[in-house]
TrEMBL record, chain A:
InterPro entries: AAA+_ATPase, ABC_transporter-like_ATP-bd, P-loop_NTPase. Keywords: ATP-binding, Nucleotide-binding, Transport. PANTHER family: ABC TRANSPORTER, ATP-BINDING PROTEIN. SUPFAM superfamilies: P-loop containing nucleoside triphosphate hydrolases (SSF52540). Belongs to the ABC transporter superfamily. SMART domains: AAA. GO terms for molecular function: ATP binding; ATP hydrolysis activity. It comes from Chondromyces apiculatus DSM 436. Residues 2-231 form the ABC transporter domain. Residues 340-374 have a biased composition (Basic and acidic residues). Residues 313-382 are annotated as: Disordered. The keyword Membrane does not apply. This is ABC transporter, ATP-binding protein. The lineage of its organism: Bacteria, Pseudomonadati, Myxococcota, Polyangia, Polyangiales.
TrEMBL record, chain B:
GO terms for cellular component: plasma membrane. This is Uncharacterized protein. PANTHER family: MEMBRANE COMPONENT OF ABC TRANSPORTER YHHJ-RELATED (PTHR30294), MULTIDRUG ABC TRANSPORTER PERMEASE YBHS-RELATED (PTHR30294:SF29). It comes from Chondromyces apiculatus DSM 436. It is found in: Cell membrane. The chain crosses the membrane at residues 20-39, 51-76, 97-123, 135-156, 163-183, 217-235. It holds the Pfam family ABC2_membrane_2. InterPro entries: ABC-2_transporter_component. It is a multi-pass membrane protein. One of its GO terms (molecular function) is ABC-type transporter activity. It comes from the Bacteria. Keywords: Cell membrane, Membrane, Transmembrane, Transmembrane helix.
Amino acid sequence: MIEIRDLYKYYGDRRAVGPLSFTIEAGEIVGLLGLNGAGKTTTLRILACDLLPSSGTVLVDGLDVVDNPHEVRSRIGYLPDRPPLYDEMTPRDFLAFAAKLRGMDGSTAEKRVPEVLEMTELGGVADDAISSLSHGFKQRVGIAQAIVHKPRLLVLDEPISGLDPVQIVEMRRLLRNLKGELTILLSSHILSEISETSDRILVIRDGTIGAQGTPEELSTKLLEGVRFEITVVGGSVAVGSAAEVLRSVEGVLAVEPTSSTEPGEARAFRVEASRDVRAALVSTLVARGLGVVDLRRSERELETVFLRLSAGTGRAGAEEGALPPTPPSGGATPQRKKEKREASEAETTKAETRRAKSEAEAKKTEAEAKKAKDEEDEGEST
Amino acid sequence: MRGALLVARRELSAYLRSLLGYIVAAGALLIEGIYFQAYGLGSGPKLSAEVLLRFLDGTCVVTMVAALILSMRLLAGEREHGTLVLLRTAPIRDGEIIAGKFLAAFTLIVLMTATTVYMPLLIFVNGKVSVGHILTGYAGVLLAGGAALAIGIFASTLASNQVVAVISGAALIVTMALLFWVARVTEPPVNDFLFALNLYPQRQRPFLNGVLRLENVLYYVAVAYFFLLAATHTLRARRWR
């Protein structure tokens, strides 16, 4: 559905994107992940034919965005980071206008608008002025205008940005409902947001793909393992031996106790493993007479993955050809290997040291992100 | 063309739903009425044709100013509100976007100008003018208004916000009007060239006197076409940025 080859985009002398190459198959939901200023919006604007590339090839459904912009535009639904809405119109009138603008005839548009209003749950506000709607509803109108003409590809720039938790859940549900009907490419700078909805994630850094894969693949490659948080219950004696039981499971590298929010004698542990051992953990614990009341991937893991990929200190791409042509500086690699050996010894103090390093990396990356954002703003304003 | 009509219909509806259209129309009618009363009907006895000339003269200037104000939001306003991307990512040509915007604002100008018709009709109470003079005069007003609107749209395409758009448009129009003064102090053939480019009053005067000349009609049409074309190319060029 999308094929991008050696795409470059310059704002003056500054390279915003490139070299960028990737493909997306029809029916996929793909997340484009990167810090502010990484080149996400520029890439999406080129795909939507709002911006022309400096060089390279961008094909949508086999059509070149430079040679056939009209045909490409009629196949794409685009929602920019700020929904393009006319405040004085009602959602019903606006969607009818958007449908006709994208080539639908009057009667087809009139039939299509109620369907889209229902699909995006806008029926209750269909005849209110858009200016009177909340941010969440405006975002839904933005999605509705992007799908009203039945596009084959939906391009969404930070669709979850600025929404409250309830609205985020509703937006994810809406995107999941669209799965299968459309190919969707959405961007975000928050990994946990798009990992919920995307089949595959493309990590963009400095205008080029730093890594790609499912969230599980990315974390496995980058962290050389996966981390889980597990809460175990049972008799006090049995629970006391839970750490030993967990360590005995094949593939487990380290086990460290954490604070539990469960009442009673429940004990919580953070487990680091070389692969996904959740099923083995549960069966082993149950076989030893222990119960499992909670088991989840570590939330910190996703953050760490993203920060490392975005900052270019990770090595996710070093395997299976996922690296960009010029690999990121791997200064942290020996240190990380050492940390892994230490982790296998399950020493809590050393695990805390790693966390501290991760937080330091996070701070450094945030500062770099802010700088990159400032540079991009400056570049676009010129 | 379908895209241009869609854009025009939405834009006209936006003018009618917002305060701007009504404020501009009401302000223009008020100023034209005062001008007609003070300089047309008032200030001593005059020939009917002179009363009509003064009315048309005042209406022409007010219409050009109104066109400039109406044009400022057409592209710069869309850019400010982030809605221009909706049009730019739709399967319509840049020329259709510009043509649609022009059509909508020009329709409003025609409606606004039509409501002034009672003033020349008042001349018939105590005097007599030819209907041809009135129609020719209105043609001049609308042609000058259309040219000013095209200049305003071009400025709106260039500017990042509405204030800059209206100031840039006004600067262009005033420059094209001041060519008349520059022409007075220059030698032939430069002064002939500058006279030929003069937006107002040189090209407008024949219309005010009830004389319809093809060259003057073509001049205003050419000015409007040139600036609309420039606006289209500017919009297209922005896709590189």
